[in-house]
Design brief:
By secondary structure, the chain is mainly α. The protein has one domain. Helices cover about 70% and strands about 5% of the residues. Strands 1-2 form a two-stranded antiparallel sheet. A hairpin with a 2-residue loop joins strand 1 and strand 2. Helix 1 packs antiparallel against helix 2, helix 1 crosses helix 6 and helix 2 packs across helix 4.
Length: about 220
């Protein structure tokens, strides 16, 4: 009897049929804008909070930034749970029975989860930058797949020394060649996306809380 192999288990090219690949792509699609927003928000809060701390109001801005980072970390925790079937729990290292505002502030500042979440959000910017490049690459290779029905046209691969690197496809043989090139590029981009998503997943597990996975 011949046993049929799952398409996703085929070496190298199986990544195209693996549903986890597309879950990772969805995560990166969301991560690109979120990482930039996080960076801008945290940078604004920390810089202006530090500058204004000499007049007192900056301390409030810095504390609000810490609280905001905890809320954003919770968003990331839920996103990681949804995409990767994790079970990251909300941290419970902030006391619920703080006696007064000063004690409450101290509780948030002392909580390791506050700084772990802030660290995750800071690192998320690099995930966002990589996600942008990968999504641009994905768009490029997908446009190449359709070359036989849309040529002539120019495909831009980026810039070198300020000059665009393009491939002008204006003949049928070139259009036909573009298809296998695109498929090879697609496999490379999907593997790279999985690698970046793996790093983001490990960051989430390490910085946003301990969790279990289903495989």
């Amino acid at each position: 009897m011949v046993s049929l192999r799952e398409p996703s288990s085929v070496p190298v090219v199986g990544v195209v049929a693996d549903r986890r690949t597309y879950a990772n792509l969805a995560y990166l699609l969301v991560a690109a804008p979120l990482g930039i927003v996080y960076s801008m928000t945290l940078t604004f809060g920390i810089v202006f909070g530090t500058l204004l701390s000499v007049v007192g109001v900056g301390v409030a801005v810095l504390f609000a930034t810490l609280i905001g980072s905890r809320l954003l970390a919770e968003v990331e925790r839920r996103l990681a749970n949804a995409v990767w079937s994790l079970d990251l729990r909300r941290p419970d290292d902030v006391p619920d029975d703080a006696d007064g505002m000063l004690a409450l502030v101290k509780g948030y500042v002392d909580a390791s989860s506050t700084w772990a979440g802030l660290g995750f959000l800071s690192l998320k910017l690099w995930i966002a930058v990589l996600a942008v490049f990968l999504l641009i690459g994905l768009t490029t290779v997908l446009s190449l797949v359709a070359a036989p029905i849309r040529y002539p046209y120019d495909v831009e691969f980026g810039t070198v020394n300020g000059e665009p690197v393009t491939w002008t496809i204006d003949t049928l043989p070139e259009a036909a060649l573009a298809v296998p090139v695109a498929l090879c590029g697609l496999v490379v981009v999907l593997h790279a996306s999985n690698a970046v998503a793996y790093v983001a997943r490990r960051m989430a597990v390490g910085l946003l809380g301990r969790g279990r996975t289903d495989g």
